Amino acid sequence: MAETVLELAKLISDSAETINKACTENGTSVPSLDAPFDPRTEAFRGHADVSIAVNTAISAAYQLIATLRPAPASIFQLATSFLHSSALRVAFEANVSRIIKEAGGKGLHIKDIAAKADLDPKKLVRILRFLATHHFFGEVEPDVFANNRLSSLLDIGKPLSEIQSNPITKYEGTSGLQAVLSLMLDDSHKASAYAWETLHDSKTAFSEEPAESAFSTYIGNGKTYWAWLEEPGNAKKEAAMSVGMGTGQTASADAINQGFDFKSLNENDHVVDIGGGIGNTALSIARGNSSVRITVQDRAAVIKDGIEKWKQSFPEALSSGRVTFQEGDFFAPQSIKDASVFILRHILHDWSDKYCLQILSHLRAAATPSTKLLVMDSIMHYVCADTANVSGGMKNDAPAPLLPNWGAAGAQLYIADLAMLMVHNAQERTLPDLRELLKRAGWKIVRVYPDEGGLGSHGTLGPQVEAVPI
Ligand SMILES: C[S@@+](CC[C@H](N)C(=O)[O-])C[C@H]1O[C@@H](n2cnc3c(N)ncnc32)[C@H](O)[C@@H]1O
């Protein structure tokens, strides 16, 4: 009964052939895991066949592991995966990648790494060895560690002295990836340990309240994540959140224009980005279209940061009045009544249906008959094949014997969904879920722009769902 194993191995070897052929044709190559990350080496993914082959190989490799590894070992690995987050956090907060880089990058003895980080070398070495065993850092000689492609991404690219002396502003001007990591590895990780207590307690089990999430159980003061971020002492986390929401963490600057045609809007059009953060989405739209008016609404603290950021990055858009920042609570009636496009990017996934209905109903009340609503969140795939096409064309098309949703290659979606559950008592939605939610607030889906890279991959912003008033 080794048939499945042979099929999985063949999928991997066929994928490797496809990748190799495309690289030869395009003059690219697959970057070595041993060398630090360099965005230019990602060029090999640009080919459509390569992206499918990569997903096939990842999905098949995970399925092969799950098939061949003794089941007790597999369950033990899964049950102890909290150790990955804990070990990664130690390496990240101790700036190990930076320390190694500043020493020349060839590798540094654990005693020197630990001295710079002010940690016990006998403990840190075990953390790094655990990570290196999972292809994160390399132990290049006994007790000597070097960065590799994965570990180098922990480095925020600023001198160690600057990182250590400016903990609040350290993520400014970075891609946002490390800012998100800092939040995930700290409070999201700790909050998720309270999932069972929160999901089965009769007080919180069926709750739709954001202040009754696993995160709220963990902090124990009945606050939402957003209210907690504003508390004194959390400035570092608020700053990380602002930077982390940047599109730069996973997407190219032009990714926003790969769905809805923002470039076709003119000076009579008005785009309103609700909960638009510090204006990262607005920046991509404004750069691609020099006439459309844009208003970014968010909480006061975020708006202040946004204005500061735009004074640096695009001051003329502010001074001309073409782009405006406005304090706005999306649970209050919407003040802008002439919107051509309302954008909700990564907003609905932060809230349960009860709260999403409030947000969507305020927008519906302020919409003109021609207003469009663009919802930009991940769309969840079923794990099984969607033969009845209830997902409206969202692909669940991995070849057998792979899981139809591409298994581990698409895991990012399910990670995002559970992170929303733990932190906000919220969720990512399937297309039928979203269609029903929008309908209840008076909106109808007219078009879905799929995530062209698929599976939330590098360089894309995920799908865009366009709705109009019913
Ligand atoms: C996940 S972030 C998304 C930011 C932005 N749309 C993006 O895609 O980068 C959610 C945003 O909702 C904002 N927010 C939370 N509660 C809000 C409220 N009641 N009214 C307006 N904005 C709010 C947060 O400050 C944050 O900027």
Automatic annotation (TrEMBL):
Q: Which residues form the O-methyltransferase dimerisation domain?
A: 77-154
PROSITE patterns registered for this protein in UniProt:
SAM_OMT_II
Top-rank taxon of the source lineage equals Eukaryota
Q: Does the keyword Cell inner membrane apply?
A: no
GO terms for MF: O-methyltransferase activity; protein dimerization activity
Signal peptide boundaries: none
Which keywords annotate this record?
Methyltransferase, S-adenosyl-L-methionine, Transferase
Q: Which InterPro entries match?
A: COMT-like, COMT_C, COMT_dimerisation, SAM-dependent_MTases_sf, WH-like_DNA-bd_sf, WH_DNA-bd_sf
Q: Does the keyword Methyltransferase apply?
A: yes
Q: Which GO annotations describe the biological process of this protein?
A: methylation
Q: What is this protein called?
A: S-adenosyl-L-methionine-dependent methyltransferase
Q: What positions does the domain O-methyltransferase C-terminal occupy?
A: 205-382
